[in-house]
Amino acid sequence: MAHVELSLSEVFVPAARASTEPEFDNVGRWSSTVSEADEPCLLIDAETRVVAISAAGCELLCLGEPRTVIGLPLLDGGLRLLDFTANRGELTEQEIDKIPPLLALSSGRLARGLLRVQAATEGAPDSTVDAISTPVLTDGVVAGSLTFFSGV
């Protein structure tokens, strides 16, 4: 019979870069990646402003061009969220707080859920997307959330 011995030692953790420049925080680092991504994804800051969104993300969420929503609060950029009833009414504030990008901000944890979105243009078809969001931390504090979407 084989003998196995296990010992534990401290894990080496490299020192984090200390910089006050925004391009060195995690939100800044993810911004260019999200902007250039082929996948539908979105990056918002702690105030829910859109920091970056991929072209595929704009298309899937019916938001037009990325440059038109950058800097706007997520829900002021033309994103219209609908419930899953037959009437397809707009979500209430309580329901909006539970969508994955915002829930990841408030809880500091991974969040996942389905969203029904409709373009702001009259008569535009709605679509259902699966969203998975993770908080983005800077110095141990939630500084934003990163969300990946998939059409359902």
Would you write up a description of this structure?
With 152 residues, the chain is of the alpha+beta class. It has a single domain (23-151), classed as PAS domain (Beta-Lactamase, 2-Layer Sandwich). Helix content is 22%, strand content 29%. The protein contains five helices and six strands, in the order H-E-E-H-H-E-H-H-E-E-E. The chain has a six-stranded antiparallel sheet, sandwiched between helices. A hairpin with a 7-residue loop joins strand 4 and strand 5. The longest helix is centred in the first third of the chain and has 11 residues, at 26-36. It is globular. It starts with 25 loop residues before the first helix and ends with a strand. The model has no long low-confidence stretch (mean pLDDT 83). This is PAS domain-containing protein.
Overall shape: it is globular
Please bin the fraction of helical residues. 10-25%
- CATH architecture group name: 2-Layer Sandwich
pLDDT average, as an integer?
A: 83
Order of strands, main sheet, comes to 2-1-6-5-4-3
The major sheet is characterized as: 6 strands, antiparallel
Report how far the terminal alpha carbons are from each other.
52 Å
CA radius of gyration is 19 Å
As for the number of domains, it is 1
CATH topology: Beta-Lactamase
Please count the beta strands (DSSP E, at least 2 residues each): 6
Task: Please write out the topology.
Blueprint: H1 26-36, E1 41-45, E2 50-53, H2 55-60, H3 66-69, E3 80-82, H4 93-96, H5 100-107, E4 111-118, E5 126-138, E6 141-151
Antiparallel strand pairs: 1-2, 1-6, 3-4, 4-5, 5-6
